Amino acid sequence: MLSSKLHTRLMGSDFELIATGADEVITAGRLEQGVAEIKRIESLLTVFNETSVIAQLNAQAGGPPVTVPAEVYQLLLRCNKISMITQGAFDITAGVLKKLFNFKYDHFTWPEKAAIDQAMLATSFEHIALLDNHQVQLKRAGMRIDFGAIGKGYAADRVKALWLAAGATSGVINASGDLTAWGHQPDGSPWKIGIADPDAPTQIRFWLPVNNASVATSGNYEQYVERNGVRYSHNIDPRKGWPVPFIKSVTVVSPGAELSDALATAITVMGPAVGIHLVNQLPDVHCIIIDGKNKVLQSDNIQIHAKA
Description:
Helix content is about 30%, strand content about 30%. The protein is built from eight helices and 16 strands. The strands form four sheets. Strands 1-2-6-7-10-14-15-16 form an eight-stranded antiparallel sheet. Belongs to the ApbE family.
């Protein structure tokens, strides 16, 4: 069995695809198929192209329902389910709030309470009406849906499904560290993912063996702000309209990239105690948290290794 790699930038992230197969023709075809599928999903879900389904839906916020493709409708249903099990910590309508708290810029100033209150009126998954015949209505004017916290995971799951349908017994889709893998490397060894040390992102703190699982990390060590002696992460709690207390990183392992992607964000918002309690109730889901003081917390039944 051979393996071939491809590096490309899609969905605003660096993707690495590793395809396996009997020969180079097969692996090259799978890489091409994977890139085409990610591009298709990007064109469907992007908010940066006014012709995309999501851009058109956002443009009708506060207005009549919009008919969306079945694929998008099903994704919205799953997002709604994750929002419910995380008690609103995961919310695809939080983008309006996030724009107020953009810590990337040196000139960031804390938003006024009136601006936060206004944004909160347009924030909540409960204002998304999923109607019959694949119709979706954003009930409040100014609402915006953004799949940034789940889209890469969805794309990875879709590529994996296509490769499995074509007979691939192993493979890897890695979107800037959010990774899904199954089977084994050509030499028979398991795929492994390194969890970066938040204080030295180029160094690996832990190694996780990955077999038919997906790993996603939400890291805050590069984007944070301090106010009145409190350090906040770049993640916003959509239920409160406020940045969450600083956690250096949250890594989630689950059967699907989409779920891992969404839960990594949600657990950052929920905090270590509540987040780990939730994870311990979900089948085949695990997490590792490095808090603001470098304390490592982990859910039950997860195996991590200090060495490769």
